[in-house]
Every structure is written in structure tokens, then in C-alpha cells.
What we know:
By secondary structure, this protein is α+β, with helices and mostly antiparallel strands. The chain is built from seven helices and seven strands, in the order αααβββββαββααα. A hairpin with a 2-residue loop joins strand 6 and strand 7 (119-123).
Amino acid sequence: MAIKNQETTVREIKTKNRRIMGAGGPEDDDNRWPPWLKPLLRENFFVHCKLHADSHKSECNMYCLDCMNGALCSLCLVHHKDHRAIQIRRSSYHDVIRVSEIQKVLDITGVQTYIINSARVVFLNQRPQPRPGKGVTNTCEVCLRSLLDSFRFCSLGCKIEGTSGNFSKKKRQSAAMASDSEESYSSSSHGREKSKVQSFTPSTPPPTSVNYRTAKRRKGIPHRSPMGGVLIGY
């Protein structure tokens, strides 16, 4: 009994270790990022604080990374002393955060930065474009927004989605499907061109009965006119 219990315990430990290490699944993707990041990206900012609605500083543009209890106004920060709080800003109706704040707690490599009001910022969520501009050579791997050549994503949200295991799998599947469709199209077009060339090649018509008689007919002996040797005098 002791040996069986020991084997069961070892098997449970191996299962737990396999689950902790992960194999590229959803749990592994969640463990890759800080626990506050996804709630931050889902949060609605620039709404009026319910606790301090009478104050002119009741706009919620702060977020506590330690408590993760929603958007906060400046007056709410009194209850979050010694906590890591960051400020969210707005640009063209989209939420941004200064690089100087976010890079202290998060790796933003590959995310394009922008200079707004003399400060370098990154966008929180994706901003798809209806159509890319002319001459664009690089786009966001997720939402296809135009980017500079040295970046892969336009926002923090796109980086989370673009580096997940599910997204990489879908990307490989779509690339394989595109390759297969291109090969099938190439083979079908080649077959059409081949049949077109064959249809334009003149073929020798089969011999008919008329052609056969014409080919077999010989030239006969010439006959003189019956009046050819008669001289008519006047």
C-alpha cells in the first residue's frame, strides 16, 4: 500500500509540473503576462468616479497595478499609497500610456511608439485601418495597421494576441491554406494554357471520299477538235 501511495504521489507531482511548465496552451499564455495587463486593457477609462462624483477631479484615468480594482480618479489614490499606479491618457479617442511609465513594469519590445504632446506613448488596444496607405511595407501582425519597419505591433493588445500560441497556430494554418490555394490555382491555370495551345494546333483532316477520288484520278489522253485540220476559204 505504501508503494502504491508513493507512486500515486509521484504521478500527481509530474502532472502538476507539466501543467505549470505548460505546452503553449491558454494557461501558458496567461502566465506570460503580468496579471494586471489584460484587466487593464479591458477597463473603461475617462468615466466619472461614483465615489467622488461631486468633485471636478472625478475623471477616472488612473489604474492600480497591485489592486486591479478598476479605473480610479485622482482622489481614489489616497487609498492606494505605496502602490504601483499608472496614468492613462487619451489621443484621438484612444487610450495611451507613456513609455516612461509602462516600460518600468512591462516589456514593450516590438510595439510601435508615438510622440504625442512631446511625450512618447504606446496605445493600449488595436486601431484597425479600413485600408493601408500607398507604399506601406510593414503592417501590424494582428490588425494590419501601418507601422514603421522596425515594429511588429501597433498596441499592447495586439502584442498579447499576436504572441499567443493560438494566434501563431492560426497564422501557420492560414499560410498553409494560402500556399495550397496558390498551388492549385497554378496547376489549373497551367492545365488551361496547355489545353488552349492544343486547341489552336491545326490538325490534319481525315481523308474523305471526294479527296480520295481526286487524289486517284489520272490525267486522260488529249483529244483534238474535229475541225482542227479544216481550212475554210473565203
